[in-house]
């Protein structure tokens, strides 16, 4: 939906359940369980108390491996997405519930039924973060294994969305379910939906993917984009590109909400926050994690690499094989290695200090007032529509933000003081389906 000319932009916030990633600080004695339902309840209720648009649950279909061993941050495991979100629907009232589900290893009929069920049980609060999984390592868990070529992953993703929509749209109000059919390169499906049209019609569709294919897919099909960028200028460029792609796909520029992931560290002063942020980063990146991070880029084992020393003199290999199940975002390994070497020489960093700097995502660090000002600045400058907040602590890491930053955003008049709608689509200001 378009907003009036000159109006200040509304800030959208969501809460990412921290877990098996490089953000969560498991060394903190306050860290709780990743699998206890009470952890999910605490974060979801905190997000709802903070009037956030949705709770965001990530997904992983296989534990990552490095040097043939399970990555230690993954050992805690991850429950299945749908039971968690369906259960959270019973203990929340307005909060949207978004789950990450692969388009590669799931079938349209099952997905249509599962998300329609969640939308019915939550009275219109369901969302689907659509992701692709193209690596054979993940595929080994499934009957068809690594059958899907990388270049076909968005072909299947597009057909998955198209086929699930056929089922969602097959049961008109006051009419019996009609038989539907979908035929494409990936699917040949004929059947009937078991559920009537859900409150939202379609769940809100979220997408994460920064490649040209990923951006094109998101601009054509997604209601919101989960992305990463580290500066206001980079955010403005990404947002402008996605909005232009949405227009080219026949959509309104504001039909797609841009929601980068962001962490935050609060302090009573700028110096206090900076010190806390540095301490957290070195908890997140221990010596072993720093070496593994470099080995992931180099693609080979680097025995004897000193976490406090320089990077290897050799260049990364073209076909990395030391890490399995983790996305390698860097396309030009040699260029990235040279850029890292320049940073080391300029700042005198060892490997661990370098990794601390280059591996961090968008982060807001400062007093609550500074963080509120920065979030508002990004949104008003059209560098984002808001942020998916990623706390560093499970499950209480969002509490301080809701208590200290949300009231300051409300004072600016750009963040809601109460929910005005009941569905996730209404929270995000999206068109009805």
UniProtKB/TrEMBL annotation:
Its EC number is 1.14.-.-. It is an enzyme of class 1 (oxidoreductase). Residues 30-381 form the Luciferase-like domain. This is NtaA/DmoA family FMN-dependent monooxygenase. Pfam families: Bac_luciferase. It comes from Kineococcus gynurae. It comes from the Bacteria. GO terms for molecular function: monooxygenase activity. The keyword Flavoprotein applies. Belongs to the NtaA/SnaA/DszA monooxygenase family. Keywords: Flavoprotein, FMN, Monooxygenase, Oxidoreductase. InterPro entries: Diverse_substr_monoxygenases (IPR051260), Luciferase-like_dom (IPR011251), Luciferase-like_sf (IPR036661), NTA_MOA (IPR016215).
């Amino acid at each position: 939906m378009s907003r009036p000319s000159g109006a200040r932009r509304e800030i959208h916030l969501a809460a990412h359940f921290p877990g098996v990633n490089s953000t969560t600080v498991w060394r903190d004695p306050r860290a709780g369980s990743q699998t206890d339902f009470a952890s999910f309840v605490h974060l979801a209720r905190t997000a709802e108390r903070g009037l956030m648009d949705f709770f965001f649950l990530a997904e992983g279909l296989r534990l990552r491996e490095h040097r043939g061993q399970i990555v230690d941050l993954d050992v805690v495991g991850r429950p299945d997405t749908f039971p968690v979100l369906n259960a959270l629907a019973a203990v929340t009232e307005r909060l949207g519930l978004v789950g990450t589900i692969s388009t590669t290893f799931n079938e349209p009929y099952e997905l249509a039924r599962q998300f329609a069920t969640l939308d019915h049980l939550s009275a219109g609060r369901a969302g689907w973060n659509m992701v692709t999984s193209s690596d054979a390592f993940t595929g080994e868990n499934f009957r068809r294994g690594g059958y899907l070529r990388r270049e076909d992953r968005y072909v299947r993703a597009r057909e998955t969305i198209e086929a699930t929509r056929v089922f969602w749209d097959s049961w008109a109000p006051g009419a019996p379910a009609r038989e539907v059919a979908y035929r494409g390169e990936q699917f040949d499906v004929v059947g009937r939906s078991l559920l009537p049209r859900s409150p939202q019609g379609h769940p809100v569709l979220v997408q994460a993917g920064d490649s040209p294919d990923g951006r094109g897919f998101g601009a054509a099909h997604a209601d919101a984009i989960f992305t990463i960028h580290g500066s206001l200028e980079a955010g403005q460029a990404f947002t402008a590109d996605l909005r232009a792609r949405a227009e080219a796909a026949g959509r309104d520029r504001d039909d797609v909400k841009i929601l980068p992931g962001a962490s935050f560290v609060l302090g009573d002063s700028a110096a206090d926050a900076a010190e806390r942020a540095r301490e957290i980063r070195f908890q997140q990146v221990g010596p072993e994690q720093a070496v593994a991070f470099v080995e992931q880029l180099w693609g080979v084992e680097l025995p004897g690499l000193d976490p406090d020393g320089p990077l290897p003199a050799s260049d990364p290999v073209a076909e990395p094989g030391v890490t399995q199940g983790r996305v390698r975002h860097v396309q030009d390994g040699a260029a990235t290695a040279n850029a890292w070497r320049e940073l080391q020489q300029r700042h005198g960093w060892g490997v661990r200090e370098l990794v601390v700097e280059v591996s961090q995502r968008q982060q807001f660090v400062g007093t609550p007032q500074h963080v509120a000002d920065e979030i508002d600045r990004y949104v008003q400058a059209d560098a984002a529509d808001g942020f998916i907040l990623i706390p560093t602590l499970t499950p209480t890491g969002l509490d301080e933000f809701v208590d200290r930053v949300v009231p300051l955003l409300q004072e600016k008049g750009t963040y809601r003081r109460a929910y005005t709608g009941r569905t996730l689509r209404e929270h995000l200001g999206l068109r009805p389906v």
